[in-house]
Write a structure and sequence with these properties.
The complex is a heterodimer. By secondary structure, chain A is mainly alpha-helical. Chain A contains nine helices and no strands. By secondary structure, chain B is mainly α. In chain B, helix 3 runs antiparallel to helix 5. The longest helix of chain B has about 35 residues.
Amino acid sequence: MNENQRVQQVLSGNTSAFAYFVETYQDMAITIAYRICGNMQDAEDVVQESYVKAYRNLHTFRSESKFSTWLYRIVYNTAVTHSKTRIWMGMNETEIEHATDLTDQGADARLAERERREVVTDVLERMPKGDALLLTLYYMEDHPVKEIASITGLNEPNVKVKLFRARKMFKELMTGTYSMEEIGYR
Amino acid sequence: MKEKRTETEDKQFRELMQSAGKKAPDNLQHRIMHQIEAEHALTRKKVPSAKKSVSLLRDLGNIFGAMYILLAAIVGGSYLLLGEEFLKSPHFWGTVILVSVIFSSLWMITRIDCYVREKKK
């Protein structure tokens, strides 16, 4: 059974068919919400609210786009509203934050004491929220630039530029703090 | 050469990012489905729009049905008692218009009453 058929099932009154969408996309939804809100408690609330919104507005879902893209867009908007913060910073602000991050790093940090997961999470948390979110969307679920643009509401060239900068910043933060070879990045 | 390097870099990025994905807590799905089912149950109770249109038609049928019965009785009675000529007189037509206005007003009052009651709800 494909997703459109499941959507039709939910629309015809079978609410339990909606469990498929919750089960399939909740991990990515919580990752997106976490990147924007910055804590797990708020991320959970945002995801719950987003799913309820998606359920209420399921009749407006057009099958031309993927259900995941539609849902992540709702999660993104809800999280931005919930966190009440600007997630897209201007170039200068980003650079300032970036510079601060680099000077804050403890030079003696060693990956041996941490797991790779924690290291990546740590670096992503020190990046501007929008940049961390772009990397997550692009690399975690292989979303094409077009889909990322429709989730975030940015235009495609803007996504590409921001993605390039985010990648660069991630690498710099990583190399500034940890030995890349140790985490398998060469 | 450059393309190959970008590809390898992308692969490494992918591995790193996938290791940093968050996992939803076990009870989250239950929480979401519970809320959705509660909403579904509430909206199902709120559906009497079909009922509403049925009652609207019933009111319409009752009021205008009675009006036409009364008009038929007036026409029949006038024809039998006062003859065909009376049916052409302004007196007769005045009566017909009066009856129509009274019943239409009754219909209008019923609709306003329904609207006010719904608004109060």
